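Incident log entry.

Two folding requests arrived from the same account within the same minute. Monitoring flagged them as a possible duplicate submission, but the sequences differ. Recording both here for audit purposes.

Request one:
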Amino acid sequence: MPTLPLTQLDERARPADLDNRTFTLTFGQPVPIKDLLLLLVRGTSLSVIPDPAIAGSFIGELKNVTVRQALGLILLPLGLDYALDGSIVRVFKREPETRIFDLNYIATERVASSTIGGDGGPRSAATVTSSTKTDVFDDVSKGVHTLLTEHASFNVDRKAGLLQVTDFPERLDRVSLYLDAVQDRVHRQVRIDARIIEVEPADGKAVGVDWSAVAAQMAGPGSPAPRAAARTIPAGLRVTDLTKLMSALEAQGKVTIVATPRLLTLNNEPSIVRTDTITFAVTPQIAEDSVVTLSLSPILKAPAPIESDMLARVADGETLVLSGFINDREIRERRNVGLAGGWFGRGTLVTRKRVELVILLTPGIVAGVVAQ
């Protein structure tokens, strides 16, 4: 039978004396490893041959352990291992192995900026800069480092997308599991269907949408009300029926769809949405239960720009409703006007109206890339 490391032991080659009896040993003084090995196989059919180069001692107590368990408890902390050759136990210094792992990642540095403003006045413009540096290779290197022994080594080849690691086999197995978990999460994708709408209250004096009325209309008789973070502005409704929501908003006043962007982004990667009235960055993060946490940083164009940051958890199939973005809009219209003496000229009619911007976000995990 070929000599195999313990981690690759052929189960069919187990001598009975490795597992069929237990014993208890207590050592209050250091016992040389070679002497302890001879003690472990005494009275069995096993023979032990330690490598001449091994050294070290053992202090401690072993209770109700088999020979196999004792060998593992004693040898591994000292950097030693054993292999079976028939009934012969060969003990030797553990030798590290080298494995090469594929890193199917991309190191990205994404900087997105958007300037929103109007007439050039000193308070009419604002700049939103969303800057996110995502270097998966650096993150993976830090994670791998925590899994290795003190004398291990590793190297990341960014261009080739390879990771070379030299360490003991059980540590390399941990690295493999870690890399599989990282790849599952990094490569997951999220689709975000967004709608940006304006609601102009039927009553021009209204501050904005009456969200308690919207929630009540959507619930209907005998139906549970949608979950809401607040019934007043800003509202945080989570709904599953957009048709009902739009009908409820139309009961509040004139509804105008400003934009309907559809985003596809990787897990923890930001995307930017820009319109003439609002700009926001949205970053999704997929949890273990497949609920998506959305990080949002909207900024509203107004006489003085309004910024906010928020986090929300949204289940698959739910739509997050964000509101409270009140915009006082000035409308200038050129018209003919009568002048004294019958002359006509051109004038500007200025009117103002107040609208509430509502953002609807429906995230969904793209099928086929869900982590195992």
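Request two (distinct sequence, not a duplicate):
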Amino acid sequence: MDKIQRQEISNCYSDETYIELDKNLETFTIFLVSKNNTKCSVFPTDVYVNLTLSNPFDHMLQIQLQNFSYSNTNQIILQLDQNILLPGSLEDFAYSKYAHVSIYSLSEIIQFQVMSSYVKKSNLQECFSIQAVTLNHNNISLITYPRNVCKLQISNSNSESKMIGMSIIINDNEFEFNSTQVSNFIDCYQHQTCHYAESIILTNLSQIIMQAFHTVKFKILSHQGTIDVAIEYPIEYVYISSTKHYLQQTYATMYIQNNSFIPLIELDQSDSLLIIQQQLDLIVYTKVVQRLSCKLNSKQFTYQKVVYGYFNLSEQSFIVSCNEGTQNQREYCQTFYDYAYDKPDTECKLDVLFYNGEICNYIEKVSLITTFTCFQRFWLTEDKYQNACVSVQFKQNYQQCSNIFNSNTLDILLLTKYDKLLYYESTNLIGMATYVKNISKSTVEFCFNCSAYQDEYLSELNDYLKCNSTKIYLKYKNYWKLSLFNDQLISSSYIRTDYRIVKYTNIAIGTIILSISLVFCILQIKQTRFMIIEVKHKKIHKHKV
């Protein structure tokens, strides 16, 4: 140390101050426990720190700090200089009895002894920052971004701690890396210069890829002292390799509502869609299975729709109704629906599997974003003027929907499944607005009375045409989305309806009413005829008398 005379300040740090060695990072950390002595606050921010360990370490480590603060600095890290030749190894640190610490500036100095020292135990669960796997039909690719906190454990040295194997576990199926792959992995980790990507070559992974959900773990087998330790890392990112990736170019959402599960696949309507369709047409297949799979905690639900013949990308949306199918199918659907309804943790996936006979030769997979709605239910009706009407019943106790009942205005947007605007109406929830009736705190019904635009000025022609195009769209089996706004999006929901069913139902009801009326009229006519005959008989009888 230099010969500058400095004022020594004592009683700054407690005896609870200790030193910790991290063998992987090759650092010494001084954990300072302050006594909150105001006399020690005279130090500037620019100071030097010296650390001298007792035998067998006789070399002093030094660091310069430019942001030192007596009241705020609670740890100081000193990196071991690679050029320093220690008289012993880091393994000998356990024999060090104490250390001497000096913190000084040009005019002040603090000196104290540290009697407690520890070796940091490595947390092998923190060896990697990001992990992912890609599954193909004949190989598994692992991608990791190593951190340098496990360099002693992930090594192939002859020390007491080394890595001896690794594997990938997929849904309880374990696939091991060979010795060359393990050696390459260790080299990459030690040099910290690359992210590791290696493949396990297999004969066929199709049966595993076909499964709806994949739980994947990366397993490391490490020799620690006299025992072998297995560490498993859950892998969050699992990718399925395919050649078309058409489902990755979609906005895929999942609606759980109206006693139904509704996967909505909104495809990119650009020229690329045509190209993807042409690529799919090159696949040899006899049927396509669209499989919807949902799970929440330990419960799962699966539905399959089979398409025989040609598979058209633009016709792949469907609705799974718990009101349809056999009794067992309805009960199975309803049980999971009641369990998963309004549960944000519900996870759903859509798989599209192309089969040639009984062999699956192509798979597309996509995760669905579960979307919840403020609508309890909504339905399509027709009034006596043949106007299409949409009735919406809101959830009463759904916290997310509180904005509906806290605002006097509500903007209604009716859109196609590709978000093309069909109809827009600004309504007043308190009073009565044009084309809206039966408004209450729980139900709104709005109708498309296009005749109201016919006699308006020419400026209203676009509204008239828009209204009529909406009615035409609703008259056939189409998918559409209903969105509600005030200052921001409150809720959005999605449904497929058949306007003709409503129309025919009304016709059927009208026919029944007409038939009843006709029968009633016939009875009235017969009764009147009997009355006339009876009156005539009375007149004849009176004349004879």
